[in-house]
Write a structure and sequence with these properties.
Elements lengths: L4 H6 L7 E2 L5 E5 L2 E5 L3 H4 L2 H6 L6 H9 L3 H8 L11 H10 L5 H15 L2 E3 L2 E2 L12 H6 L6 H9 L12 H8 L7 H12 L9 H10 L12 H15 L1
The structure holds a DNA duplex (13 and 12 nucleotides).
Length: 246
DNA sequence: CACCAGGCCGTGC
DNA sequence: GCACGGCATGGT
């Protein structure tokens, strides 16, 4: 069926991307505006080659996942190829702290407001996502005024503990999970999202409200190891499928 | 008015 | 260890 770039970029693993009027996608990453219409646009750019995980064989993984059982086959066949992005650690951490008890549309709005307030303008109306240094003097009142609500103190804690994000890349999965959860507002679900979408940890299996429904309805006697070694990617297909089915 | 969204924290048992 | 209420905000 080919790639489903819209699902990959706008389906809930990143909140950096926008769909433009001409059908292409753009984001402020790597200190610049990056624009992509098809995956081929990413192949010649070293940053995007890495970001889109182009060295991984997603077609082989897709076939293997679809062969596991009928539900997964349905989920895979309901959409094009979904990829796992390799995002910046800090951006992923704040993005998924924002995501708790929230919806994708509003998360994206909060991401934009943080960028406008604390980031840097690189083109007219396009801002970088702020670094921890950019947000060094942020206050809880400021963050609440942007609409982050009860997540404001979590963001402040993440700012103070940002260096931790550079120390977990080589840890065993469970230890990396535990270390991430020492930051306030990061529990098991948020931690696994950060590890998957930023640290290339494909054994993560985040259980949000949608995935809990999938597991209860279709896999009541299974645990994430059933999907090994495609836990994270299987979860993405199931998440996309159940959400599109309502 | 209610209930929900890519959950987690604090408290109580 | 598990259960439960509370939590900011905007959409339906």
């Amino acid at each position: 069926m080919g790639e489903n770039l819209r699902e990959t970029l706008l389906g809930g693993q990143s909140f950096s991307w926008r769909e433009d009027a001409d059908g292409s996608f753009s984001a402020v990453l790597d200190g610049r505006v990056v624009r992509v219409r098809t995956l081929e646009d990413a192949a010649s750019d070293p940053f995007l080659y890495d970001y889109f995980d182009l060295s991984y064989d997603y077609e082989a993984a897709r076939l293997a996942i679809a062969a596991r059982d009928d539900i997964l086959r349905q989920a895979v066949e309901s959409t094009g190829t979904i990829r796992l992005l390799k995002q910046d650690h800090w951006i992923a951490a704040i993005s998924f702290i924002l995501s708790q008890n929230n919806n994708i549309k509003r998360i994206t709005g909060l991401y934009d407001r943080l960028s406008r307030k604390y980031g840097h303008e690189v083109e007219a109306g396009r801002y970088t996502f702020p670094t921890p240094e950019d947000m060094r003097d942020a206050t809880e009142d400021e963050l609440r005024a942007l609409g982050t609500g009860f997540r404001a103190p979590f963001i402040l804690d993440a700012i103070s503990k940002a260096p931790l994000l550079d120390t977990i890349g080589n840890l065993p999965f469970d230890e990396a999970m535990e270390r991430l959860q020492t930051i306030k507002g990061i529990g098991p679900k948020v931690a696994s999202c950060i590890l998957i979408f930023s640290y290339q940890r494909r054994e993560g299996f985040p259980l949000d409200v949608w995935m809990k429904k999938v597991m209860k309805e279709y896999y009541p006697d299974r645990d994430p190891s059933y999907f090994h070694p495609y836990e994270a990617l299987s979860q993405q297909y199931l998440f996309s499928w159940i959400r599109s089915r309502g």
